TrEMBL record:
Binding positions for Fe cation per the UniProt entry: 76, 78, 120, 122
Pirin N-terminal domain sequence ranges: 41-138
UniProt region (Disordered), positions on chain: 1-21, 295-318
Protein name, entry field: Pirin
Native source species: Sphaerisporangium melleum
Pfam families: Pirin (PF02678), Pirin_C (PF05726)
Required cofactor(s): Fe cation
GO molecular function ontology, one term from the record: metal ion binding
Record text on cofactor binding: Binds 1 Fe cation per subunit.
This protein's UniProt keywords: Iron, Metal-binding
PANTHER family linked to this entry: PIRIN, PIRIN-RELATED
Amino acid sequence: MSDLEREPRETVCGGLDGTAEGPVREELIGRDVVLGGTRGMKVTRNLPGRERRMVGAWCFLDHYGPERATMSVGPHPHTGLQTVTWLLQGRVLHRDSIGSEQLISPGQLNLMTAGRAISHAEESVEPDALIHGVQLWVALPAASRHADPAFEHHEALPVLTAPGVTITVFAGELAGVASPATVHTPLTGAELAFEPGGRVAVPLRPDFEYAVMALTGEAEADGAPLPPGPLLYLGCGRSELVLSAAAASRVLLIGGEPFEEQIVMWWNFVGRGHEEIERFRKEWQEGSAFGEVPGTTLARIPAPPLPTTRLKPRGRQR
């Protein structure tokens, strides 16, 4: 999915400054963003936020739905990141400039690695159908960010079970179980589906930082309420996290080794400096480097104007 804000912020994030070395509990309230103008689909953007911009290498998190809506995101570019599409309801068709065409349904994973440059388009299969999901981005480290673009689709993902809880590991590793999806930094991405009264003590890595979000229903994290909406940042230093739910609920868990490199995010690009972002934008506007997306009838999305002021480097926090 694209960042379709008309005036996107240029954001510096990454680096170890501001990483919570010990366990914390910070509630990060997202902001509403409408994709594609006032009549577009509304999403809640929890990363990057004012208070915290990354969790491990996870640098972007949009939560949308459940609502009746039509996803219609025309060809747009990406650099220096991976897009992770995880659906709870609805079906979405992905097409990209390396020739991939893939329908994704709930419980399946689409993973696109932008590398040096890729463009793609996404659209709902059924107009005005119920759609609910999350779109995440993972920042690529220096060793991988100029690699060839790639795309993966995974229908079968590893599952862990506990009484009343089913855990699907869609990215990275959790409790000794690894997703087949290609990742370039140590991280975790999982969905926990709770039956009423479900409870689980999830083993964590103390060197990872983590965050959780209730996607449906309400849950508890270490005995504290986890209402739907906010992203609860947990910091580092935990060896386990106790999660429970009185009613049926679904919870997102993300985490990873704190990302040491400082990155610059603007619109759909992840780079390492203002000049690089300027070059990416110029190449997209000129129609070079990013290729064409075959098969789609959706209009190509132009890049918004760059900010009039140069960015000022900041840490992982406000």
